[in-house]
Every structure is written in structure tokens, then in C-alpha cells.
Amino acid sequence: MLAIHRRAPAFEALLEAATKAAPDCDVTVDGVRHTIWAVADPETVAAIGAAAERLDALYIADGHHRSAAAARVAAMRREANPNHRGDEAYNGFLVITFPDDQVRVLDYNRVVYDLNGLTSEAFLARVAEAFTVTPSEGPARPAGIHDFGLYVDGGWYRLGLKAPPAADADVLARLDVTLLAERLLEPILGIGDPREDMRIDFVGGARGLEWLEHLVDNGPMAAAFALYPTQVATLLEVADAGGIMPPKSTWFEPKLADGLISYPLD
Predict the structure, then answer these.
(1) 8-54 pLDDT per residue, tens
(2) Which whole-number Å values give the CA distances from 125 to 121, 122, 199, in the listed order?
(3) 201, β-bridge pairs
(4) What's the CA gap between 106 and 96, in Å, rounded?
(5) How far is it, in rounded angstroms, from Cα 231 to Cα 104?
(6) pTM
């Protein structure tokens, strides 16, 4: 699981000291370098553990489903083991956490298979009811929040909200993924729950806007939407407010290599 924590100087100092020597593992997977240091000194382990416990919170950034699955496995194993002590391996799972100032969230863009029966001209006219629509000579990469790029019928357009949410509105209502869904995808394209609707797909920002063009120009997509990346501070704000980020709202890359570290339960 990938987690984020608010930077804690004492915690970071311990980790920096522990990683000054050569790493125990240094491997490149799919062009991404992974380095691992094993901390074996009991005093250092205890100091790092104590510093970690003083962190206000760990915020799940990627791996929500795996975390939930691990919790369910732990609950089932505890139920099947009436003599459990609480220190069994199944009561924990692997986590890697980064300070919030060392994490960058990439954009998570949307592509749709059809225009809900509309021609591109009629679609743009409907979009113009809620957004300013400005043709762009090249890829319309969003410059900030509430700014969207649209690629349809071989052309890029920059979309701006005509009625942006108030600055003091609920944080979830201010998210660009929420605004695009509520003001365009659902009312114009008839796309409701993005987790279940088969007419929409998602593209991680590492692919670039050129990939969005490719999907539309070469099929099977009818239109693509470029979003401004969700900011780390916003993600933490949602969690602190007890909210849950909408599906497909953050993209993290590079990904941790699967199987690089194993955690046996038995």
C-alpha cells in the first residue's frame, strides 16, 4: 500500500540516516529504479518505530482495495483462531509511506466511447451551457483547478466553468472530477457511476495528452477530457474531513514493483 504522511522532520532525519549506506537491494524494473535498505539494528528500529507512531496519520494514496482485503483477511483469521494474541503476522500488511512534499499526483483523465447520440456540434453546444468553450491550437493542458481540456472530432478545446463552486464549498464539491461528472458527464452524456458505466474509461497522466488524441483519432473513443491533477493537500483535506475521494481521481507513477518485498502470513 502506498501512503502519505505530513512531513515530520524527526522521522525523516532517522530515515535519511538509515539510508546513507549502500542499499541492500538496488534494481531497475521497467525503467524505474528501486532501492531498499534493511534496518536491523534494534535501537534504530525502535527509534524509527517510535517516530512513526508519533505521526498524526497515514493517508492511503494507492491500494485502498488491497488494504480493505488485508483487513478482511485479518478479521477472518482472528475469527478462526480463538487463541489469537494480536501479534500474528496476519494482523499487519506491507505499507510504504512518503512525506507529502515528496509526492506528486498526476492527472487522471477521462475518455468516453460515444457522445450519447449527439453530433460533435450538438455536444459542444450543450457543453457551452455550463462551460466557456475556447478552441485551442494544440493540446489543452489544464492550467489550474476548474480548467479542463476537451478533445473531440480532431480538435482541442479549453473548458472553463461558468459558475465555479464557492471557495468555502465542501471540499468534495470543489473537486474537478466531481464538477466534470456533475456538470457534463452525467447531464450531457448520461454517464452516471464511473465505476460501473462501460461507456467511460480512464487514462493515467503519464501517458500524456497525445495518447488521448490517439484514442479518439484511431478509435474506439469519441472524446477525451484532460483534468488538472488533484493536489496532495486536497487529498489530505478530504481525508481529514472524513470524506472519500471519488473513484479514479488520483494517479501515482512510478508504481512500486509487485513482488519486490514479500510479507508471509504464516
Answers:
(1) 999 999 999 999 999 999 999 989 999 999 999 999 999 999 999 99
(2) 6, 5, 21
(3) 111
(4) 19
(5) 8
(6) 0.89
